[in-house]
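MODEL INPUT / OUTPUT PAIR
PAIR INDEX: 1
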Amino acid sequence: MAHTFEELVEKQRAADQARARVKEMRDALGAPAHEPWTEVQTETYETAWRAWRDLSRDVQAAMGEYAKDEGLDRAEVVADVERATGDSSDPAGD
């Protein structure tokens, strides 16, 4: 599937929003080892985490496809998307 740069930026923004939601929930609920979560809290958190994971996976795959289709270096595409979204965070975590 062909992607445009603008689509990559939108996909990254969606992944960033999902990541922020997971972080908000973790901050609000605390660590489950310290304060046990209810079943609903656990399910809600896991759903949000899966959404973040899936969106992140999809944008990473799309950036790889875009780089290949355009004959660009993948790392440059990732950096360009990060600049466009204003995301300078660590891609591995928080």
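PAIR INDEX: 2
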Amino acid sequence: MKNNLFILIFFIFLFSACRKISSDNEKQYFVFQGLSNKDIILYKMTRDDKDNKVYYPLMKVNTNTKVLLPKGKYFLANECSSYEFNNESEKEEKVVLSRVSIILGNKNITNNSLDQKENVYNSYCIDPLDGKEHWFINKLSFDILPGKNSISISGRTVDLNFQAGLFSDKRIDLWPLTLSSPINTDSSKFFSLPLDLTLKEKKFVISAPVNGTLWLQAGRYQVEVNGSKQIMLIQPSSTYNIKLGVIRIGSPKNFPIEERLKAGGQPIFAYINEKVLFRLNTDYPVFPGKYRVTLEGTEIEKNVVVSEYELSSVKTQGALVMSPPCGEKYEKCRAPSRITIHMNRMPFVLMTVPSDMPFLVFDQKYEYGIEGIKGIFKNLYTSEDSVRIDKLGRIKIKWETRYTTGNTKTDFVRFESKSMNMFGKSIDIMYFKPDEIYLPEGDYWLSYFVGDQNLVLPKTRVDVSLGGGLTKEVTIPLYMEKTTENLTAEKNKENSTLTTKTTLSPIKN
């Protein structure tokens, strides 16, 4: 009986031992090494019906541990790297987690004490599982698995290919670029865009506050602050400190912006170099250099030179051209045309503004005219404190038709300026025969010319003094050839239909 019990125990032990040996043969040890207190996610990798890879998370594995795993294919991943391996060999599978260290100006900073307000660099990597971007600010080290991985630091891609069984500590050197400004403004930042990249590398901009430091890898960059740009070459073991200047575009102290808005205008902005929008009365740090400053929506411009650590102030001045009121004896008055701004008595228009709306120009000499009555200009006087007001006058015209015999006809009618601060003459208003026109306040000659194909008669001039804000009535004779059609029209008092008989010959000064 005892012998039978002994034999049974022996067979049970033998069966258990054989089963353990068989089970151990289907498993293999996986050793995960690296710096202490690091962990990573271990996935079981299979394939679905369409032969696509499928990952099942198994556990979190800490560094310097040994795990017994069934034989098969596995996948290790963290937010910036991944590694795929087969756990099927006779020897234990060994994987080492390496490190990428960021070195700032030859100083190995091991903690995360970098001041993010004054020192900035950005990094990002692609999640190996979902393809999402992970962004970091001032991250000093990255845990990277073996194999081919990549990480972007300060705008440049770093390709990695660590061996599975060896620990690597790759060093990435960054060098400081500081933009110093005489003013401290929280809203001003400078931006860096790397230039010498391959077509496959993704370009992204990193930024830092003015009077702060941007840490960059060696290479060429386009650095921008408030729209001003400069190309820089960052070299190893170098320190860069660029001194900025400040530009300010100011408006008159008492400029009536509310009146401008009530008149249908918009807030006034300015551009530098035609592309960068600036608010008025605001300090903007920019690179030293020469800039073209324009007022928004106009061709009015001024060149300004900005020097290091100096404030370059661009002054603007205000003006307002007012239209005359419509008198009580007039049932209606036509609204005045817009005001055109000119320089150096040139005909092209730098800016167009409605009457009765305050506007700004630079502290330079300008003239203004009236759209539709081209040719007459008046010096534009402006104010440094608020606005300088000038007034338009209105002329009501009565066209008096007079019939003559022969070929003598009215050839043109125009207004010619004769005041000290005015110049030019209007286009021939015979072409459109208006009932009223607007002109700047001042003294004029009302001139009309009567002639025929063979005869040139002297001009007839009538003095017209036009006060600002007032309406003046004038009669202009219109000489026409008398015909049977004229006589019929005269009887019916429909003289206006006969203007097509007027001859308009070339103007001779």
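PAIR 2 NOTE: The chain has three helices and 39 strands.
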